């Protein structure tokens, strides 16, 4: 992900570079409306499971967000008895190997509202259903079908904002970060309770960051609107430079497998009247040329929320991973300038990413691990705390990333190379996005002003 460095110069009061907390949105996360989440206790599995009564509820809750007609192009739909029966062996193979559903949090740390993983008894139940010859049972015993609006995993969006001009993706080579600035046309301030990024060609989208550019912001003011551009395509050196960094908040971040943002009624992201959405798209080629036209869907809060969600990040730009190192740690610390409530995490690294951890460091230097992820470049997920965690001003957060630059890492493009921070996936990144809630009347800049008695 590009640009995450916060403009420290613009921040009031001695905010130190060591406080690598910048303001960027990222995904909160969640699965489906009404899904029962986070319940990881064992339940006795029925000895002879039936599709409608026992299997379908599991597929609905753990699989259909991706495996359904319109959701992820090319993935098998798993919505009906016939579909599940047809793919029974693959289902068993994928769930017993824990390849599906995708979930990478170490279960020893933290509980997450969007934990989509299957319990051991659910895996055993899928196995016995297939062993028994996939009995259907009585459709009347099954849950009603889930209703989706097209590819959206959020309630029907109140507004869909689409990049007006599709971006051409070549068959091969590296594509520079592509931007498209799209005016919202909002004539009043809006609060976004749910939002989702929906690429038209997900196979090309390595990540998307949707920035909220308020009307007063000077960021990329000289750049064109409603058409795609890259930093290089602009003649103006200042604009080229601006493309690399902003203090604007983000609406959300998308990466393969990431969940939409779903905030409780009392919280939302703020989009001021007259704001633009700036789509920052990182496309990768996949051997066949094509085009993408990504949309963002937003469901607005019914009434103004009590709390505003902002996204910050713990970054370390300054590392050098030696050739061949198989477990190279890079860490960064930050101190919360004010009270807030911690909501969710979204670690981001590239092909050499191995593991990522978020910790609270206590005064006596002991640590509490909030999340540990066995990192998978092809599945960049967000992890939403089952119970939001109040953090006092002065709380020290730490993020640690481990990189595998050895030949044993099958994704490693070149184990003989020393690796630094860079945009492209052959370079590395170390970004620990996290979402916090602050009072609705406060904005990101004010959050960084330390309250006198809290210093
Ligand atoms: C977050 C989205 C997501 C969820 C949730 C998910 N899958 Fe998948 N699934 C995928 C994607 C994407 C692939 C393609 C795998 C790849 O390319 O690595 C896939 C592949 C599969 C395949 C191989 C056939 C195919 O479509 O490529 C099976 C079978 C499968 N998943 C079953 C399941 C089951 C069963 C569940 C629920 C228990 C589940 N998946 C949950 C996204 C998901």
How would you sum up this structure, described in words?
This protein has about 450 residues and is mainly beta. It has two domains: about 10-30 and about 155-455, Sandwich (Jelly Rolls), CATH 2.60.120.230; about 50-140, no CATH class. The chain has six helices and 21 strands. It has helices spanning about 50-60, 80-85, 90-95, 120-130, 235-240, 445; strands spanning about 20-25, 160, 165-170, 180-185, 190-200, 205-215, 230, 250-255, 260, 265-270, 275-285, 290, 295-300, 305-315, 330-335, 340-350, 355-360, 365-375, 385-390, 395-405, 430-440. Strands 1, 2, 5, 9, 10, 13, 14, 16, 19 and 21 form a ten-stranded mixed β-sheet that branches. A five-stranded antiparallel β-sheet has the order 7-4-11-6-8, with no helix packed on it. Strand 17 and strand 18 (about 365-375) form a beta hairpin. The longest helix has 12 residues, at about 50-60. The chain is globular and about 65 Å long. Heme C binds near residues 62 and 94. Heme C binds near residues 66, 76, 87 and 90.
| Unreliable stretches covering 5 or more consecutive residues | 1-40
Proportion of helical residues = 10-25%
Quickly count the domains: 2
Topology as H/E string? EHHHHEEEEEEHEEEEEEEEEEEEEEH
Number of strands: 21
Instruction: Assign the CATH topology of the largest domain.
Output: Jelly Rolls
CATH class of the largest domain: Mainly Beta
Shape: globular
User: What would CATH call the architecture of the largest domain?
Assistant: Sandwich
State the major sheet: 10 strands, mixed
Distance between the termini: 32 Å
- SS strand fraction: 25-35%
């Amino acid at each position: 992900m590009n640009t995450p460095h916060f403009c420290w110069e613009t921040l009031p009061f001695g905010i130190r570079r060591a406080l690598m907390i910048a303001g960027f949105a990222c995904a909160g996360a969640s699965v489906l409306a009404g899904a029962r989440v986070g319940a990881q206790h064992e339940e006795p599995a029925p000895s002879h499971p039936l599709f409608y009564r026992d299997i379908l509820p599991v597929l609905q809750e753990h699989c259909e967000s991706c495996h359904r007609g319109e959701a992820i192009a090319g993935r098998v739909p798993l919505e009906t008895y016939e579909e599940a029966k047809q793919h029974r062996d693959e289902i068993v193979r994928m769930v017993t190997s824990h390849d599906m559903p995708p979930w990478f949090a170490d279960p020893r740390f933290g509980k997450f509202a969007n934990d989509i993983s299957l319990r051991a008894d659910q895996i055993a139940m899928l196995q016995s259903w297939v062993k028994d010859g996939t009995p259907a049972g009585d459709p009347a015993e099954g849950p009603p079908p889930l209703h989706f609006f097209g590819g959206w995993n959020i309630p029907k969006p109140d507004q869909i904002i689409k990049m007006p001009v599709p971006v051409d993706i070549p068959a091969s080579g590296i594509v520079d970060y592509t931007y498209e600035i799209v005016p919202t046309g909002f004539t009043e301030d809006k609060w976004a309770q749910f939002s989702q990024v929906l690429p038209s060609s997900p196979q090309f989208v390595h990540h998307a960051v949707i920035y909220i550019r308020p009307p007063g912001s000077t960021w990329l003011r000289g750049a064109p609107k409603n058409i795609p551009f890259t930093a290089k395509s602009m003649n103006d050196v200042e604009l080229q430079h601006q493309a690399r960094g902003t203090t604007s908040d983000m609406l959300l971040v998308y990466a393969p497998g990431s969940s939409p943002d779903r905030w409780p009624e009392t919280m939302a992201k703020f989009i001021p009247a007259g704001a633009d959405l700036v789509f920052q798209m990182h496309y990768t080629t996949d051997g066949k040329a094509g085009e993408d036209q990504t949309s963002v869907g937003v469901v607005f809060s019914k009434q103004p929320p009590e709390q505003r969600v902002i996204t910050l990040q713990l970054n370390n730009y300054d590392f050098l991973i030696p050739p061949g190192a198989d477990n190279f740690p890079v860490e960064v610390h930050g101190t919360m300038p004010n009270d807030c409530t911690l909501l969710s995490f979204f670690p981001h690294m590239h092909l050499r990413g191995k593991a990522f951890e978020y910790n609270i460091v206590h005064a006596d230097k002991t640590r509490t691990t909030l999340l540990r992820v066995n990192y998978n470049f092809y599945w960049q997920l967000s992890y939403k705390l089952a119970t939001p965690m109040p953090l006092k001003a002065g709380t020290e957060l730490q993020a640690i990333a481990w990189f595998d630059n050895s030949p044993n890492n099958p994704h490693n493009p070149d184990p003989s190379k020393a690796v630094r921070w860079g945009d492209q996936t052959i370079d590395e990144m170390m970004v620990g996005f996290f979402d916090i809630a602050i009072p609705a009347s406060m904005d990101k800049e004010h959050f960084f002003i330390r309250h006198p008695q809290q210093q």
